[in-house]
Amino acid sequence: MEVIKVSAHSRSTAVAGAIAGIIREHGRAEVQAIGASAVNQAIKAVAIARSYLVQDEIDIVCVPEFVEVDIDGQDRTAVKLVVEPRK
Amino acid sequence: MEVIKVSAHSRSTAVAGAIAGIIREHGRAEVQAIGASAVNQAIKAVAIARSYLVQDEIDIVCVPEFVEVDIDGQDRTAVKLVVEPRK
Q: Partner of A43 at 20 to 30 A CA spacing, among B22, B37, B43, B64?
């Protein structure tokens, strides 16, 4: 599945729209962010996506985990948020 | 229930320990953060708390939402993370 990559400059509402669309289509989304500003935008996007999905009667939760990623040949620790419907 | 307030200077591992302790005792924890650095520390703490709770066979998820809080007479928007076992 495609991972939604969030930067410090990403708009939370745009990311939220992407999350909501992927949840509707695939039932699960993955969001990846590196750095405090990007992580903040990502978690705000999940909060906003929750409101978008109320009309679909889908209640989402997120599961944060650390992942190592390669950025321009350098190892960086990213935060991955797995977003899925509440069971 | 007591809310765990996280600042930019909070240690993620200390917050993670608090989350894990409250989850073990009460089955649900609330974490509140204002600002990108604090939100980042909070979400990292949830990721770390997940690893602490593996030994208890508890798998946690978090639900982010916005809340308005009063800080020294000023309205601020905080991010609240409700942490609970995966159903």
A: B22
CB contact under 8 A, B44 and A79: yes
Per residue in A35-83, pLDDT (tens digit) is 999 999 999 999 999 999 999 999 999 999 999 999 999 999 999 999 9
Mutate one of B61, B80, B87 to test the A interface: name it (highest A CB count within 10 A). B61
Q: Using CA atoms, how far apart are residues B4 and A68, in angstroms rounded to an integer?
A: 28
User: B83, B86, B82: which is closest to B59 by C-alpha?
Assistant: B86
d(CA A8, CA A36): 8
- What is the ipTM score, two decimals? 0.94
For helices B36-53 and A36-53, the axis angle rounded to 10 degrees is: 80
Residue A58: count other Cβ atoms within 10 Å of its Cβ. Answer: 17
Question: Inter-chain contact A44–B79, Cβ cutoff 8 Å?
Answer: yes
